[in-house]
Write a structure and sequence with these properties.
The complex is a heterodimer. Chain A is α/β, with parallel strands linked by helices. Chain A has 3 domains: 32 residues, no CATH class; 209 residues, Rossmann fold (3-Layer(aba) Sandwich), CATH 3.40.50.300; 33 residues. Chain A has a 7-stranded parallel sheet, sandwiched between helices. Chain B is of the alpha/beta class. Chain B has a single domain, classed as Cobalamin-binding domain (Rossmann fold). The longest helix of chain B is centred in the last third of the chain and has 16 residues. The chains are: A alpha/beta, B alpha/beta. Chains A and B meet through helix 2, strand 3, helix 4 and strand 4 of A and helix 1, strand 2 and helix 2 of B.
Amino acid sequence: MSNIGQLLELAKSGDRRSLSRLVTEISESSPIPQFQSESTWTLGVTGPPGSGKSTLIGQMIKHWIAAGESVAVLALDPTSPISGGSFLADRIRMGGEDLGDNVFVRSIASGNSPGGISPRIWPMCDALSLCGWTRIVVETVGTGQSEFRIAALADRLLLVDGPDRGDIIQAEKAGILELADVIAVNKSDLPGADSSAQSIRMALSLSGDDNREVLLVSALNGYGIEKLVSTIESCHSRTAGNEMIMREKLISEWDSMLVTHPEIDELIAKLCIGSITVNEAIHVVGSSIVQSRE
Amino acid sequence: MRVVIAKPGLDGHDRGAKVIARALRDGGHDVIYTGLRKTPSEIVKIVSDEDAEVLGISTLSGAHESLIPKICDGLREDGIGNTIVFTGGIIPERDLELLYKSGVRAVFGPGTPTSDVLAFLDEALLRKQNNNPIGVGDDLGWHWN
């Protein structure tokens, strides 16, 4: 049995150390390992930097634990494009106190993955699910308006925003707001949260049949968290027939084949010295992908 | 390398820890910061769950004699004796031997250039790759300074 197979068996039997090693193996192995899990429950949490995603997840964890769930969090933070290093600090905000053995938090550097979401995240979620984790949360790096990748891959998506995010024109703009299943305006304890939520509700109401809720919450004092968790719990897993989601899945698969291509570094080096063109590089990658799929 | 920077006990000052975290990030490492006031067992759990290769412990409060050996024992008991441990902060000369005996491989005091810490990590990685003792559970003897 492979190292990964052994670790999975040990992790399934409850060995936490093996679970931790397994996640590392998934983040490093090539080709990317895949797991079959029927019942993986995933929530993507996205939103601008500083909107309170990690703190809010910390509050939701408490509710889930009290309800008897076991919660695994994969928390992404950016990798420096200059040094290749990272400062991963999401977990500081999640567990003020030790929440026991039913919470597993792993910090992950986003690397150079397109959309900030590594294609390795999804096998990690499946492996965690196989090991009995019933609530799996993927926290994205702080995002702007056009990072859709998480929407394609998580079963349900929570968008966290804060007060004073601009006037209604901001809420009218196309983007992640259109894709979120649940929208939470955090920091309800601060002035401006209410009008921020109202702007988003107005924007949603223009598209007639949009009945998504915009919830006011405070990760600081716990206001609205119970309602938030129950709204997330009642939201259905995203439908497979959604054109946008399929489009993102396809692009995501293509991107991951490109960035994990064995010759990628060599191709980039050749591009740097100008010995090949971008078109030629694409041709190299494309033809070898076609071959490997035949 | 994946490095956890931890603040154990009741010490509430973490400027030093943040400076080191930043220097390691700029040196190309993935740094996970625990935040303030963690217990030894919480720190061991974080190192294990994050599958970190290195643990840096910052302490300024004078509690290093009691907290650091507890953390080192915890790492060994948890089966992660291959973790490389270093410390920084206000640590009197007379206590260095105790920390080395606990399995700490380097102690960095005030005024240490951050390049020293990076050089230590390079050396530690080299020792690990060559199977020389470097983890908290390995044979004692070698330490950086």
